[in-house]
């Protein structure tokens, strides 16, 4: 029934509380938006998470949703900005994790303050705890990738799994670490 409506008509119906209008918008745009995000993120789970976050926000704001131009422009812009926010937020956490891991592999040069040392010790403990909570295969992949610096190809050969499986486990482990280490952002 809702397939014949334009995007703008569906948005108006959504404001009026028509749940099926939301479903139609979601199914019209979900796959194309996931592909759009995938170009930048190279991870299907992360791409799906970002698109889901945008649609969740639309759902939560449905009664007060104001779209100045076309819905398609609105949704693409929302997804693009959400992707950029995701990259900014998670790059910072990844950087902290890398610094802790690098600190483990290199001797301390003594130039850091006591406060920095305490912070990094706490972060290291949190990374270690988070690594212990990962599922077995994700933990193996994470250690080989981030601590032993194996390439994805080397990990796939070492564990006798596909390259895509390695990418999945890395994405899963990093997402888990980011969530677990949220207090360090």
Structure description:
The protein has helices at residues 7-15, 19-41, 44-60, 71-105, 114-133, 136-147, 152-159, 163-180. The chain has 185 residues and is mainly alpha-helical. The longest helix is centred in the middle third of the chain and has 35 residues, at 71-105. It is elongated and about 55 Å long. 20% of the residues are buried. The mean pLDDT is 81.
Low-confidence parts: none
Please state the structural category: mainly alpha
Biggest β-sheet strands, sense, barrel: none
Q: Which descriptor suits the 3D outline? A: elongated
* SS summary, helix count: 8
Termini distance? 46 Å
| DSSP strand content | under 5%
Helix proportion of residues, in percent?
Answer: over 70%
The overall average pLDDT, rounded, is: 81
Order of helices and strands: HHHHHHHH
Number of strands: 0
Our Rg estimate from Cα atoms comes to: 21 Å
Please describe the topology of this protein.
Layout: H1 7-15, H2 19-41, H3 44-60, H4 71-105, H5 114-133, H6 136-147, H7 152-159, H8 163-180
Helix pairs in contact: 1-2, 2-3, 2-4, 3-4, 4-5, 5-8, 6-8, 7-8
Offer a quick outline of the entry.
The chain has helices at 7-15, 19-41, 44-60, 71-105, 114-133, 136-147, 152-159, 163-180. The protein is an all-alpha fold.
Overview features:
185 residues, mainly alpha, elongated
